Amino acid sequence: MGFGIEAASYYVPSLYLEIKDLAEKRGIEPAKLEKGLGLHKMGFPDVHEDAATFAAEALLKLIKDYNLNPKEISRIYLGTESAIDAAKPTASYAMQMAEKVLETEFGERCFKNCDVVDMTFACIGAVDALHNSLDFVRVNPEKKAIVIASDYAKYELASSGEYTQGGGAVALLVSAKPDLIEIENNWGVATESVFDFFKPRRQFKKEDLENSPENFPDKIEIFTDEPVFDGQYSNQCYQDRIREAYNHYKEITKRDKPYEDWKYLIFHLPYAFHGKRVFTEIYSLENGLSYETQDEQKTVAKSEDYLNFINKKIEKSQRASSEIGNMYTASIFMALLSAMQTSFNENEELAGNEIGFLGYGSGSKSKVFAGKVSENWKKVVEKWNLFENLKHRLAIDFDTYEKLHRKQLEHSVNPDYKGFGLQSVELENPVLKGARYYGYKG
Ligand SMILES: CC(=O)SCCNC(=O)CCNC(=O)[C@H](O)C(C)(C)COP(=O)(O)OP(=O)(O)OC[C@H]1O[C@@H](n2cnc3c(N)ncnc32)[C@H](O)[C@@H]1OP(=O)(O)O
C-alpha cells in the first residue's frame, strides 16, 4: 500500500505589488531582482487577510474541489511561522472559519472530532506536519489527514529582505490513496541550532508601552512579525543543511546520485532562483567538480551542463514563486504545484516519475525526501488553474503597499472582496482581549 498526497489546493494573497515598482522606489536595479533573483510580483495581504484566512481559504477549497466529507478528516496539522497567537493555534481559527461555511451541508462543528494543531520550525514546519501526518496514515491507513502550510512573509521596510516578501497557503490531503504523489518513507535529516533568521518575542516593559504607545499600536502583539535575519548567513546555513540532509538521504537509501533520477527537484524557495543558486554545491560534489573558490563556483553555475540541468529539473518549479514571492512554509509545496501545473499545461506525462524534495527551515533544519507521481495525477491537477488564477489578483501601488505594511489602513483595499476576512479584534473586554473574529463573504 502507498501513502502520500491525495489532493492539493492553495490560496495566494489577493493583492500584489510589481517588483519593478519596489526596485524603482528603493533605488535597486530592477534587473538584479528580476534576472538575478527571479522576482516579478510580490503577493501582499489586504487588511482583512492573515495566515489564518489564507489557511481557511486553502482548507475550504480542498474540501470543496475534491468533494471531501470534513467529518472523515482525522487531523489538520498546520505548519506556520506567522502564528496569530502564541497559544491558540492558527489551525483552530482556520478550522472554525471553514466549519461555519460548511455548516449548511454538514451541520454544526463538522471538525468536532478532528485533531488540530500548529507546527513551527520556520519554513520547514509544514514539511514536519507532512512527515508526521504520513506516519499517522501509515499506522491508520483508513484515516485521512490534512496538512496546511500557511504564512505571511514580511520583512522590515527598505531592508534587504523586503523584496523577498510574499505569502499564501497550500493545503494537502494525506492518505493511503495518494492520487497525486506517493511519498516514500526515507527522510534525510540535518539539524543545527543557529541564528540565521528568527522571530524573538518582543521584549518590552510596561513603562515602554506607556511612554511610547505609538510603538505598540494594538498593545497585544507579542511576536515581531518581521524577522531578525542575516541574509547571506541564512543562504549559507540553507546550503549546509541541504548538503547534510542530502548526504543523509543517500546514506539511508544507499543510492548514488539520486538527484539524477529525479524528474524535478523541489526546493523551499524563499525567492524563485534560490534552489538553483544553492544546488551548485551538491551538483559539484556529485560530479567531482572543484567548488572551493568563488570563481570555481561561478564556473559551475554558468556551465552549459548546469544550465541544461536547471532548465530540465528546476525551472518549472520557480514560475509560481516569481509571481507570488516567499510563502515560507508553503513555498516548497507551491514549487511542486508550479512544476506539476506546468507539465499538465504542456501535456507532459508525469506518471511514474520520481520527484525529489529539499526542504529548509531557518534555525535550522533540512529534510530531503522523494515521491513518485501517481497514475491519477492529472485528475488532481485539473482543479488548480494556478497561473490563470494568479491573474485575478489586484495590483496595488507603492504608496498603498507601504501603508498596508505599516498597518495604517483601517479598511480593506478591496472592500468587495470575497471569502474569509478578519472582522475585528477585541481590545476592551479583559477576558477576551486579543481575540480575533472572522467572517465570510460568499
Ligand atoms: C528565509 C530562508 O529561507 S533562508 C535563505 C534565504 N534568506 C532569505 O530569504 C532572507 C531574506 N532575504 C535576504 O536576506 C536577501 O534578499 C537575499 C539573501 C535573499 C538576497 O540577498 P542580496 O544581497 O540582495 O542578493 P545577492 O547578492 O545574494 O544575489 C543577487 C543576484 O543578482 C545578480 N545580479 C545583481 N545585479 C544584477 C543585474 N543587474 N542583472 C542580473 N543579475 C544581477 C547577482 O549576480 C546575484 O546572482 P548570482 O549570485 O546568482 O550571480
From TrEMBL:
**What biological-process terms (Gene Ontology) are attached?**
acetyl-CoA metabolic process
UniProt entry keywords in alphabetical sequence = Transferase
Pfam families, alphabetically? HMG_CoA_synt_C, HMG_CoA_synt_N
Say yes or no: keyword Transmembrane helix present: no
InterPro entries from the entry? HMG_CoA_synt_C_dom, HMG_CoA_synth_N, Thiolase-like
Please state every residue range assigned to the domain named Hydroxymethylglutaryl-coenzyme A synthase N-terminal: 3-176
- Give the residue range of the signal peptide: none
A GO molecular-function term, please? hydroxymethylglutaryl-CoA synthase activity
Outline the extent of the Hydroxymethylglutaryl-coenzyme A synthase C-terminal domain. 284-405
Top-rank lineage group of the source organism: Bacteria
Query: What protein family is recorded?
Result: Belongs to the thiolase-like superfamily. HMG-CoA synthase family.
Q: What is this protein called?
A: Hydroxymethylglutaryl-CoA synthase
Please tell me the species this chain comes from. Chryseobacterium formosense
